[in-house]
Write a structure and sequence with these properties.
Layout (H helix, E strand, L loop, with lengths): L1 H19 L2 E4 L6 E8 L2 E17 L2 E16 L8 H9 L11 E13 L2 E10 L2 E11 L3 E9 L21 E12 L1
Antiparallel strand pairs: 1-3, 2-3, 2-9, 3-4, 4-5, 5-6, 6-7, 7-8, 8-9
């Protein structure tokens, strides 16, 4: 009887340790989408960029971690047509004075702190690395059963991207590009 109690207690401890481990949900990169918007004095441009990897981790259905790798070489412009400036803008965004994708083909986002705001909504502080430079970013993420969405603004100048920034150059006039760009993230698992 004593051995039975010892085995039962051991099984409960082992079962408890399994339930405390995080469950990782890998992102389906083919079905997930990141849209971007960059604004300037005379208008804006928009496009998409692809994830190459990503996952969210949960303990008892509560978000506890997340990390993502973005394929910076996949930057596309969706508001211009081929032959009407699309290729030029995409090339410029991939060039060294913007994202320098030949040298920095990926960017990463790694969750650092997560606070629950309401059912399925979390306040996240994460480390975003672009062009080898890491800075914290804050945003809310809404998590559903097989999806998650987030919107965030990124100050490009914090990553050494100062091209036509009114914060660094005078006299740009209508060539000024906003320092912040916007990301809308739609993840599918």
């Amino acid at each position: 009887m004593k051995n039975f109690k010892t085995i039962a207690i051991a099984l409960l401890v082992v079962a408890g340790s399994f339930s405390a481990t995080a469950q990782e949900k890998k992102v389906d990169v083919a079905k997930s989408k990141i849209s971007w918007v960059g604004k300037k004095v005379t208008g804006q441009h928009e496009g998409t960029i692809s994830l190459s990897d990503g996952s969210l981790s949960f303990k008892k259905d509560v978000l506890v971690n997340g990390s993502f790798t973005v394929d910076m070489t996949s930057i596309t412009v969706t508001d211009l047509k081929a032959g009407e400036g699309k290729e030029n803008l995409e090339g410029h965004l991939k060039a060294d004075d913007f994202f320098g994708t030949a040298k920095f083909p990926t960017a990463t986002l790694v969750f650092k702190t997560i606070g629950k705001k309401s059912a399925g909504v979390y306040a996240v502080t994460a480390d975003l690395t672009i062009k080898g430079i890491t800075n914290p970013v804050k945003f809310n993420i809404t998590v559903g059963k097989n999806s998650a969405t987030a919107a965030l603004k990124v100050d490009r100048t914090k990553y050494g991207i100062k091209y036509n920034s009114g914060s660094f150059f005078d006299g740009l006039g209508d060539k000024t590009i906003n320092d912040e760009f916007e990301l809308a993230v739609d993840l599918k698992f």
